[in-house]
Amino acid sequence: MVDAVERSALPARSIDPARPAAAVTALGVVRSAPLVPRRPVTEDPLARWEAMAAGLPGVRVRPELEVDLAPGPARLAPHTAAVTADLVVDDEELATGRLVLLHDPAGHDAWQGDTRLVAYLKADLEADMAGDPLLAQVAWGWLLESLADCGAEHVEASGTITRVVSEGFGTMSERTSAQVELRASWTPVLDDPARLVDHSAAFGTLLCQAAGLPPLPPGVAVLGATR
After folding, report:
1. Which branch of life, at top level (predicted)?
2. Res 220 pLDDT > 70
């Protein structure tokens, strides 16, 4: 998992320099056009980090999401933290993921900011959807829609989409399954570090969407705490 985080931490470069920054390749690298983020309000660096890290458990947007705090990969940034999330319905795991928060108070040129979020998701697919040639574009759209719906402003979003199909034969012919994997990273635009919770909620929403769960009705509270 650390290797996947390292591959996703930096934004991908466009393969063809003549093409615009926004590009999609089937089951390959996807990237949204970069913007110049607003400079955040300056405050105590440690307080800023703690306010951002406190928003990570916001991934739990539905009671079916089991969220755990996890250590971040220390070698990628001065400050790191992470959460893991499993979407379990009727004792069946439909999706699993990990969201990593990286923060360098000095800023990072490749990030276009001082903070980077790195996400990994794996979800089961219906057989007919696994064969859809537009799966990569659809799955990347889930991420961008989730960020937009949660008001999670960002720049330099990039990532990869992979489909995994396992087909059984002989006495194992019924053991056929398909999954989609998303690896992505983006730079949150945060005037208020507490608004990182919007990005955490977007990732939780993405997990639910990938598993086919509809959003909770307005006004329904999610009870329980992150472990």
Report:
1. Bacteria
2. no
What is the distance between the alpha carbons of residues 202 and 150, in angstroms, rounded to a whole number? Answer: 6
∠ CA 31-76-150 to the nearest 5 degrees? 45
Cα separation, 188 vs 104, in Å, equals 13
Cα separations in angstroms, 118 against 74, 83, 101, 191, 215: 14, 11, 7, 20, 23
- What are the tokens at 124? 């089961």
Strands (E), 50-205: 65-70, 79-89, 92-108, 113-124, 154-166, 177-188
Q: Which amino acid is residue 114, in one-letter code?
A: D
Yes or no: say if 96 and 85 are a contact pair by the CB < 8 Å rule. yes
Write down the pLDDT at residue 172. Answer: 76
